[in-house]
Amino acid sequence: MIKLIVFDMAGTTVDEDNVVYKTVRAAINATGYDFTQEQVQTAGAGKEKSQAIRDVLALDGQQHGDDEVAAIFEDFKVRLKQAYADLNVREQPGTSEVFADLRRRGIKVVLNTGYDRLTAEGLVQKIGWVVGTDIDGLVTASDVVNGRPGPEMIHKAMALTGVESCEFVAKIGDSQIDIEEGQNANCGQTFGITTGAQTEAQLWEAHPTAVIHSLKELLPFTE
């Protein structure tokens, strides 16, 4: 029986037109690279964003120092803040209804993300979700030492909601690293969703419980 579902944000519960990975690409390529959007999303999807930048840079087979990664990350944050200020951020279709259905049945809902807390809280506020009313918690990459695919964010979500066994936890996200995060936390179920960064075929490569195409398709797995 599922007691807690940990939902990724961008691409899973938040529809932001892949602006994060478009911005990652813009910040990297502004320094002279020419990575494609597909390369950025394959290497960086779901990760803490400085790690995503590091892993995209590594695709060229060269050594890249911490200073270079840090400089690109700082530029990325400036660009993303402006992008979100200009963007009509909205929830993925049916998200609030799914949250309400789960919480009505006593299933806890926590968002987790590779964003830092400031960015994540800004997104949540922009959509209008309130912790304690619409969701039960928010865990971000800056709240833990080790982000995805490590299990720390899921363990923190469990602590926040009083769920003691990973067997009763499900994780859902739009990238392989979301699924791997759930598997590394020994979650009872893991789900990929095709509304974001990666394709159905890419998601199946991580061997989730299922791959779904909308959040409402998650509900039968929780009954």
Summarize the structure.
The protein has about 220 residues and is α/β, with parallel strands linked by helices. The chain contains nine helices and eight strands.
Describe the structure.
- The chain is an alpha/beta fold.
- The chain folds into two domains: 4-15 and 90-222, 3-Layer(aba) Sandwich (Rossmann fold), CATH 3.40.50; 19-86.
- Helices cover 42% and strands 14% of the residues.
- It contains nine helices and eight strands.
- It has helices spanning 19-29, 37-44, 49-57, 66-86, 95-104, 117-127, 152-161, 176-184, 200-204; strands at 4-8, 14-15, 90-91, 108-113, 137-140, 169-173, 189-193, 210-212.
- The protein has a six-stranded parallel sheet with strand order 5-4-1-6-7-8, with helices on both faces. Strands 2-3 form a two-stranded antiparallel sheet.
- Helix 1 (19-29) crosses helix 2 (37-44) and helix 2 (37-44) packs across helix 3 (49-57).
- The model has no long low-confidence stretch (mean pLDDT 93).
CATH superfamily of the largest domain: HAD superfamily/HAD-like
Shape: globular
How many β-strands, per DSSP?
8
Helix content: 40-55%
- SSE string, helices as H and strands as E: EEHHHHEHEHEHEHEHE
Radius of gyration: 17 Å
Number of helices: 9
> What count of structural domains?
2
User: What structural class results from the helix and strand content?
Assistant: alpha/beta
The profile of the biggest β sheet is: 6 strands, parallel
Walk across the major sheet and give the strand order: 5-4-1-6-7-8
Q: Mean pLDDT, nearest integer? A: 93
What is the first-to-last residue Cα distance?
8 Å
- What are the low-pLDDT stretches, counting only 5+ consecutive residues below 50? none
